[in-house]
Specification:
By secondary structure, the chain is of the alpha/beta class. Helix content is 25%, strand content 24%. The strands form 3 sheets. Strands 3, 4, 5, 6, 7, 14 and 15 form a 7-stranded mixed sheet that branches. The chain has a 6-stranded parallel sheet with strand order 10-9-8-11-12-13, with helices on both faces. The relative contact order is 0.17.
Length: 307
């Protein structure tokens, strides 16, 4: 099969499309013929070597944490899924990748909603898992107000929608050019940066109950002050979290948010959940997809299609 791979840590230039052996579904897994896969910050964090203290890779490495496609192998013990089913899901956590290829093995998955394209579904599972994990960690419940720092990105847009489905009020920081976009998702937009607390006051007169930092731009001290307690703040992007008493939530640590996949699919079928796609790249342009993801300016999800 063809797959995007890299043989050493480095910038986007280390990525290339090569032939490699196909993977096969093990017990409790399915294999899909991949139609699309998402690009996440974790992909380029790993590729750059930023996470070597937390996770070491075995080279050559295939990036990609989530994908959508058509099942062509069903592992032992799997029920309710058959060859030919269109699904979206996540690769085994221990592999730290593998989705950016013509075939990929999934460890957690759900039926692809008919209303989602493969491109939308290909970029959904990782963000659904992260959003579900974070909302559960925050104890997010009906009637609460959630502040999302970096609300216009892939995780931010998914968390906002899933939070609203739980009955939360959502306020999201973003640049002014993304305010109308967030408003269309039912999120109250506010400009990020110094003075945030003052801008929030008229938007949340009773205060903010819980906070997600999806941006990792060094704002944790301000976010803790806004929440009033570091235990009411979770970050997925600031590795200096412990210094502020804030939880850093990441895949593979704690309870995964896999339960969110079928729930997200059901919300999508009801017209209550979309996957904003920023840009779609072909597999041959995987380096450009990584490069754009690293800018942090994507509105929604960056997706790679696989031939």
């Amino acid at each position: 099969m063809l797959a995007a791979r890299y043989h050493r840590y480095g910038g986007p230039e280390v990525l290339s499309v090569e032939e490699t052996e196909e993977p096969h579904a093990g017990p409790g897994q399915v294999r899909i013929s991949v139609r699309a896969t998402g690009v996440t910050p974790a992909d380029w964090y790993l590729r750059s070597g930023m996470l070597t203290e937390l996770a070491s890779l075995r080279f050559p490495h295939i990036p990609g944490m989530d994908a959508a496609g058509v099942v062509d192998e069903v592992g032992e013990g799997v029920t309710g899924t058959a060859v030919g089913d269109a699904v979206f899901g996540l690769v085994p956590l221990a592999r730290l990748g593998g989705a950016c290829a013509q075939y990929a093995v999934l460890e957690a998955w759900a039926r692809k909603p008919r209303v989602w394209s493969f491109e939308a579904a290909g970029g959904a599972a990782g963000n659904v898992e992260t959003a579900t994990r974070v909302l559960d960690a925050l104890g997010a419940a009906e009637g609460m107000t959630l502040l999302i720092e970096g609300a216009a990105g892939g995780v931010g847009t998914m968390t906002a929608q899933l939070a609203r489905a739980r009955g939360l009020t959502v306020i999201g920081t973003a640049s002014e050019r993304n305010h109308a976009f967030l408003d269309g998702l039912g999120v109250t937009p506010v400009t990020y940066g110094p003075g945030l607390a003052g801008r929030l006051a008229p938007l949340a007169p009773r205060g903010v109950d819980v906070v997600l930092d999806a941006a990792g731009k060094g704002s944790l001290a301000d976010l803790v002050a806004i929440a009033g307690d570091p235990h009411r703040v979770v970050t997925i992007a600031d590795f200096d979290a412990a210094r502020h008493g804030v939880r850093l939530s990441r895949s593979g640590v704690g309870e995964p948010g896999w339960s969110g996949l079928p729930y997200a699919a059901s919300l999508a079928e009801e017209g209550r959940l979309t996957v904003p796609v920023h840009r779609v790249y072909p597999l041959k342009d995987i380096a450009a997809a990584h490069e754009e993801s690293a800018t942090g300016h994507a509105r929604g999800k960056i997706v790679v299609t696989v031939p």
